[in-house]
């Protein structure tokens, strides 16, 4: 049975939190780290998970569980342009 968008987003949210837990409190991850971790293949298919990984990061930021940053500073979804990083909420 195919995974729904909501199920995929929830799974990616969990992957993001698991990756952050395994890193130092001051470390951040790239959405691609989550996409690669969640992808169940060994080809470039993880790229299709990039937008869902970003969506999961924004959901976690909205819930104050994580922060999305650019140049080390938290940004909102409307402010963000280009590559972002994800870190634990401070």
Which features does this protein show?
90 residues; alpha+beta; Arc Repressor Mutant, subunit A; 3 helices; 42% helix
Helical content (DSSP H or I, runs of 4+): 40-55%
Counting structural domains, the number is: 1
Give the overall silhouette.
Answer: globular
The ordered string of helix (H) and strand (E) elements is: HEHHEEE
Counting DSSP E segments of at least 2 residues, the number of strands comes to: 4
Going by CATH, the homologous superfamily would be Winged helix-like DNA-binding domain superfamily/Winged helix DNA-binding domain
Account of the 3D structure:
This protein has helices at about 5-20, 30-40, 50-60, and strands spanning about 30, 65-70, 75, 85-90. It is of the alpha+beta class. It has a 4-stranded antiparallel beta sheet with strand order 1-4-2-3. α1 (about 5-20) packs across α2 (about 30-40), α1 crosses α3 (about 50-60) and α2 (about 30-40) packs across α3 (about 50-60). The radius of gyration is 12 Å and the shape is globular.
């Amino acid at each position: 049975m195919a995974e729904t968008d909501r199920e995929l987003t929830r799974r990616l949210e969990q992957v993001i939190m698991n990756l952050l837990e395994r890193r130092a409190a001051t470390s951040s991850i790239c959405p691609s780290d989550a996409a690669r971790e969640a992808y169940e293949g060994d080809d470039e298919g993880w790229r299709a998970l990039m937008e869902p990984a970003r969506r999961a990061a924004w959901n976690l930021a909205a819930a104050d569980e994580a922060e999305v940053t650019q140049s080390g500073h938290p940004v909102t979804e409307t402010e963000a342009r280009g590559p972002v990083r994800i870190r634990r909420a401070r």
